């Protein structure tokens, strides 16, 4: 149906709707006190305090941004760590960086009994990590628990298209659904992973419609990005996922300055690149090179770069293993050093740079 209410016929329809914020059971979003990430910044001035529910990329990025604006930020996550789609050590580095900026992070916690008041909201913070239940109050509550496909109102049940339990449309290699002439891309499909995939998906559809050859889409090459003042990203497999898939995992680290750390994951038997993760101010600039390295199988041989140094360490047979123990990391590397680098508290301790040995 067209915008004026009339039926519109077409040989090909491309479904490319944006995702919608996921809700929180028992919490009504009123758009004033209780917000979603896409409406919080509608206020002419940032609120003095914000409580954010959700420890993924959206919640973490929003927490860092609001803290940089001077807001008092509380971040609540049900998980035992932030950024569960990255490895735990990268998440720990980001957690430390947030703490250095004044963000209070509550792991393994939930908000209960949320009530809107004249001045904001009250709630019970059920903090299992501390085995405590505290009544809290705040000005703004932001539900940042993820995103869902916006397909519920499209009456796709009247077509042959197949949806999964979350509302994603099932597609084939050229983004075609089971309904002839209907293609879907972006947040509407389950294989979408990161903002970089949508353009590649559209290009695949157009090439298919023109009768041109198409290249297989690799969702693993699309970065999972945390934007803002505490940036981080991951592309490809995490070390934990690679080990779970049966890879003999090799990891290499490099600290490229007081604010930058990069981790490379390889297959310990073949040396093939499996993933790259980074945290710190240098992460955004590193991301294109990491994507290219995943596509090419190794970092570009363009000098002594942080990515190539970490990759070289990961190739060391003495460092290959299927777990993430502290002694799998290079000599001189300690978790608190990575936390310090990422939060900017360790500006000139060059003796702690990674050097390829065993700790």
Q: Could you provide a short overview of the structure?
A:
The protein is α/β, with parallel strands linked by helices. The protein has eight helices and 17 strands.
Describe the protein's architecture and organization:
The protein is an alpha/beta fold. The chain has 3 domains: 27-147, FAD/NAD(P)-binding domain (3-Layer(bba) Sandwich), CATH 3.50.50; 149-219, no CATH class; 231-343, FAD/NAD(P)-binding domain (3-Layer(bba) Sandwich). The protein contains 8 helices and 17 strands. The protein has helices spanning 37-40, 57-68, 88-100, 196-209, 239-244, 283-296, 306-314, 335-343; strands at residues 13-15, 19-21, 34-35, 49-53, 72-76, 104-106, 109-116, 121-127, 132-138, 140-143, 147-149, 182-184, 224-226, 232-236, 249-255, 260-267, 273-280. It has a 5-stranded parallel beta sheet with strand order 3-10-4-5-6. The protein has a 5-stranded antiparallel beta sheet with strand order 13-14-17-16-15, with helices on both faces. A 3-stranded antiparallel beta sheet has the order 7-8-9, with no helix packed on it. β7 (109-116) and β8 form a beta hairpin. It is flat. Mean pLDDT is 82; it is low at 320-359.
